[in-house]
Design brief:
- The chain has helices spanning 31-41, 58-67, 92-97, 117-128, 146-157, 170-180, 241-248, 257-263, 265-272, 280-288; strands at residues 17-23, 46-52, 72-75, 89-90, 102-105, 111-114, 139-142, 163-166, 185-187, 202-205, 229-232, 252-254.
- α4 packs across α5 and α4 (117-128) packs across α8.
- It is globular and about 60 Å long.
- The protein has 10 helices and 12 strands.
- It folds into 2 domains: 5-115 and 264-291, 3-Layer(aba) Sandwich (Rossmann fold); 118-256, NAD(P)-binding Rossmann-like Domain (Rossmann fold).
- A 6-stranded mixed sheet has the order 2-1-3-5-6-4, with helices on both faces. A 6-stranded parallel sheet has the order 9-8-7-10-11-12, sandwiched between helices.
C-alpha cells in the first residue's frame, strides 16, 4: 500500500453529529461543501449531507431524521413553507419572515424552526463594510420574494428609518408590505426607481434579474449617492451587472456569496457546537466547486 489510509478515509464514530440540507432537487446546493469545510477545519466528528426529498415525503422525512438522531437540517426550495407545519416551535424571526430554513431537533424531541437569511444578510454587510450604519438613511430594495421579506425584517430590526420597496409586479410588493405591516416600508412603482436613489444609503437586489440565465437588471444608478452601498444576493455570477455598474461609478459593492456563508453559521453552531468564521479561504473553497 503506497499511501497512508488514515489520511484518505474519514470515518464516523457512534457518537457522530449528523445534519444535512433537504430540498428537491438538492444536488446544486453549496451547503454540504460549506459545512464540510467547517467540520474538517474544526476536527469535528460529524457529517453534513445532501438530502433530496420530494414534497409529498417531506413531513415524514423530517420526523424520520429526528428519530434517527440527526442534530438538525437546513431546508431549501420547495420546503421553506411546508416545514412550518412540521415544527413544534418557531423562532420569532421565523414567524415574522414566514419561512424556515434552519431546523434543530431538541433533546426532548421537539422540532425547532428558525430563519437565518436575514442574519446572513446583515452579517455579510457588516463584514464587508464595517462602517455601515443601518440607522442613518433609507434603504432601497428590489423584489418581493421570500429572501426580500427576510431582508426587510432584518433591516427593520436594525432600525432602518425607511425602506423603499420596488417590484416589477407592484401588487406583490404591496402585499408584502401590508403583511409585514410597518409604516417605514414605502412601496414605489418599478419605473420610478431612478427618482428615489439620491438619499439612499443602501441598494439591495433580491430579484433573479442579473443571475446567470436570467434577463439583466436594467436600472440607472446615476442618481445614487457616492457613499451608498450596493449589494446583490445573487452570487452566480459573483459580480452581477448591477454590481459592475455600481463599482464603475465608485460605489462600494457587496456580492451575495457572503450572505449564503453567514446564514449557515447559526445552524452549524447549534448542531456541532462551534461558531464558525467566514474567511477568504472559505469563500475560495466554496467558489472552487463551480470549477470542479
Amino acid at each position: 500500500m503506497d499511501f497512508d489510509i488514515s489520511n484518505n478515509i474519514r470515518t464516523l464514530s457512534g457518537t457522530s453529529r449528523l445534519a444535512g440540507v433537504m430540498g428537491w432537487p438538492v444536488a446544486h446546493s453549496k451547503s454540504p461543501r460549506l459545512q464540510g469545510y467547517w467540520l474538517a477545519k474544526h476536527g469535528i466528528d460529524g457529517s453534513y449531507m445532501p438530502l433530496p426529498v420530494a414534497p409529498e415525503n417531506f413531513a415524514s422525512a423530517v420526523k424520520s431524521l429526528r428519530d434517527l438522531g440527526f442534530a438538525g437540517v437546513n431546508v431549501t426550495i420547495p420546503h421553506k413553507q411546508a416545514v412550518f407545519d412540521v415544527c413544534d416551535e418557531l423562532s420569532v424571526r421565523a414567524q415574522r419572515i414566514g419561512a424556515v430554513n434552519t431546523v434543530t431537533f431538541a433533546p426532548d424531541g421537539k422540532i425547532l424552526g428558525d430563519n437565518t437569511d436575514g442574519f446572513g444578510f446583515i452579517e455579510n454587510l457588516r463584514q464587508s463594510t464595517p462602517e455601515i450604519d443601518f440607522t442613518s438613511s433609507p434603504a432601497m430594495i428590489l423584489g418581493a420574494g421570500g429572501a426580500c421579506r427576510a431582508i426587510i425584517v432584518s433591516l427593520l430590526d436594525e432600525n432602518c428609518p425607511e425602506i423603499r420597496l420596488l417590484n416589477r409586479t407592484k401588487s406583490r410588493a404591496q402585499a408584502l408590505a401590508d403583511d409585514v405591516n410597518d409604516p417605514r416600508i414605502q412601496v414605489i412603482d418599478w419605473n420610478q426607481a431612478h427618482h428615489c436613489l439620491d438619499d439612499a444609503a443602501l441598494l439591495v437586489n433580491t430579484t433573479s434579474l442579473g443571475m446567470i440565465g436570467q434577463p439583466p437588471l436594467e436600472i440607472d444608478l446615476a442618481g445614487l449617492a457616492a457613499q451608498a452601498i450596493v449589494t446583490d444576493i445573487v452570487y452566480a455570477p459573483l459580480k452581477t451587472g448591477l454590481l459592475a455598474q455600481a463599482e464603475a461609478q465608485g460605489n462600494r459593492i457587496v456580492d451575495g456569496l457572503g450572505m449564503l456563508l453567514h446564514q449557515a453559521r447559526p445552524g452549524f453552531h447549534r448542531w456541532f457546537g462551534v461558531d464558525p468564521a467566514v474567511t477568504s479561504e472559505l469563500r475560495d473553497f466554496v467558489l472552487a466547486s463551480a470549477q470542479e
